[in-house]
Amino acid sequence: MTGSRCSFSGVATAASSRPPESLAMDLNPVRFIAYSDYLCPWCWNASRRLERLAEEYEGRIEIEWRSYLLRPEKRVARDLERFRKYTESWLRPGAESDAGPFRVWASEEGPPTHSVPPHQVAKAAARVSPAAFRGMHDRLMTAYFAENRDISSFEVLRTLWDAEGFPDEAFEFAYSEEVESLIFREFEEARQLGATGVPAVRRADNDAVIVGAHPESLYRHWIERSLAG
Questions:
Q1: CB burial class (10 A; 0-12, 13-18, 19+) of residue 13?
Q2: 77: left (phi > 0), else alpha (psi -120 to 50), else beta?
Q3: What digits encode the pLDDT tens for the residues 181-229?
Q4: Which residues, including other chains, have CB under 8 Å from residue 224's CB and lie 6 or more apart?
Q5: DSSP state of 119
Q6: Rounded distance, CA 214 to CA 209, Å?
Q7: What would the 3-class secondary structure string for 202-224 be?
Q8: Do 158 and 171 contact (CB within 8 A), yes or no?
Q9: How far is Cα 165 from Cα 176, in angstroms, rounded to an integer?
């Protein structure tokens, strides 16, 4: 199966409100692993769909977000006007009915130097709590695609972090060797499994990846088959 994608994690779950007799099946929720990059417009659409489904299935599934790096190497002095022209392509994912808000680049920030920094901050937020990860995961994409903020900038990332009220010591963890190593391991894992672009999703118990931002109906069908298992 293929879908729109960008070529070259935290855990999203929802607390259950169902009656106790229906909870036994949730002792071992079906886990999905999603590889994504914060610089990928199609990843935002896929993220919104998968997060809605994580809420809809009330803890019967888990979505674990892992890192993919469209720009693994830092590159400074990129041409802003050329980048601005590139962001006109965001109008295509932005035209989908369930898309997040996209705006052609209108600020004087950026372009982003590479993919690693927003992943570092997302990993640090995951250390605070699953809810903190979910909030930062969405905030990073909103800042980039809707507000045209350079989410590779330390200053921008610090501003976003402080606005969420997260602790200072957790932010420092973002720039540790441990986090950087984890990000690159996840990226290499995705490539070894055949993910030539993102978003890419697989079941945790299966190495086959589905690449592309697919309709929510396809993800739901996959979830239903997995739960019927």
A1: buried
A2: left
A3: 999 999 999 999 999 999 999 999 999 999 999 999 999 999 999 999 7
A4: none
A5: H
A6: 13
A7: EECCCCCCEECECCHHHHHHHHH
A8: yes
A9: 20
What is the rounded CA–CA span in Å between residue 124 and residue 128? 7
Cβ atoms within 10 Å, residue 190: 26
For residue 34, what are its two tokens? 């999603």
Number of alpha carbons in the 13 Å side-chain half-sphere of residue 76: 1
Helix, strand, or coil (residue 140)? helix
Which residue has 């690693």 as its token pair? 116
User: pTM of this prediction?
Assistant: 0.89
pLDDT tens, position by position, 99-149: 999 999 999 999 999 999 999 999 999 999 999 999 999 999 999 999 999
**5 touches 197 (CB < 8 A):** yes
Angle between helices 177-192 and 116-128 (to 10 degrees): 110
Residue 65: helix, strand or coil by DSSP?
Answer: strand
Domains of the chain are: 6-228 (3.40.30.10)
32 and 61 in contact (C-beta within 8 Å)?
Answer: yes
Whether the Cβ atoms of residue 144 and residue 38 lie closer than 8 Å to each other: yes
